[in-house]
Amino acid sequence: MIDFELTSEQQEGIKAAHESAKELFRPVSRYYDEHEHESPQELIDKMWERRGEGIFSMGLDVTSALRIEELCWGDAGLYLCIPGPALGGAAVFSSGTKEQLGRFLGGFNEGGPKWGAMAMTEPHAGSDTAAISATAVRDGDEWVLNGEKIFVTMGKRALENSDGFVVVWATVDKSAGRAGIKSFVVPAGTPGMRVEKLEKKLGIRASDTATIVFDNCRIPFDNILGSPEVKKTETRGFRGAMATFDATRPIIAAQAIGVGRAALDFVKETLESKGIKIRYGAPRQKLTALERDIMEMEANYKAAKLLTLRALWMMSQAQPNSLESSMAKTKAGLAVTKITQKAVEIMGPLGYSQKHLLEKWMRDGKINDIFEGTGQINMLVTARRVLNYSRDQLK
After folding, report:
1. By CB distance 3.0 to 4.6 Å, which of 59, 82, 114, 123 could disulfide with 163?
2. 318 and 181 together in one domain
3. Model confidence, pTM
4. Which tens digit of pLDDT belongs to each residue from 100-139?
5. Checking DSSP bridges between strand 209-220 and strand 165-171, what pairing results, if any?
6. 49 catalytic residue (yes or no)
7. Segment 286-302, tens digit of pLDDT
């Protein structure tokens, strides 16, 4: 039975995250939206100092999602700047051995701030991760990586830090198709790995999104996550990549519901300040269009949140959650898009103006329907799981 009851310690961590969002994120949110690629170093230092307050977590669980929701209620782009293993850490957590977890993640909250990143998307392999063309060739006790990865969230920051790392997906045998795809941990400072450019984006502008090139980049043999063996009748390496998505998609969903709640809170507070109350007990046929809109926004937010918590609860219980993970990501991406757009519509010129953060939340929210698998791809994954269809049967 799913139990979302929180301990006093968990509640304190969530409260600390909300206070950080309110006190540190919101006041500088507009500035770093307008100064893309400028490092929010003061905020980073303060968040690093607060890492013992229950804000940071290596886990992928319900309380982690609730903390992330609070931080993204403050600012989703600044949340992504917080030091931590991030998506790269989720990949290690999902596919790494016990030894690798200790080696790559064991001391991540010690010393100075550091970051992890995940590099999967390529110029000609976006949603179709099976089409990855970056290569990893074994040379004695090393792997030699070659290829280009795009849209790497926090890639620049991960490479600039001496203790950071990037998890890279590459093929060790192109003839094996998906079975030849493996993931590798590349430490920052490794020769042959460089940031080629930074994207200029619509939203989450405080975080960097990098193109990373691997040019004869050599890493130790035991930096591969999972088995190096390739059996063309199996797809374990590719399944490892998909298992990573099972872990990260609910985290993206948690980010989405944080942004959606920020927009919803703003609208409700503004209406309340004007003396407009939502009549929750009234029959639907007697509700105003505004009241119906608010209730639909709230329903979308709550549905996305419950799906997200369910997916992460299943993961914390070591239960397969591929279906639930994709459902949560799909619903949250749609919900935050609908909620923020409707919020701007309801507020009219007030919502469209940069006087408030509402228009920014609409821009920040849309990415959640795109990265970590687009909404369309996740709907496809969901349909396959529900109908019990294979990849070849439903494309």
Report:
1. 114
2. no
3. 0.93
4. 999 999 888 788 889 999 999 999 877 777 789 999 999 9
5. unpaired
6. no
7. 999 999 999 999 999 99
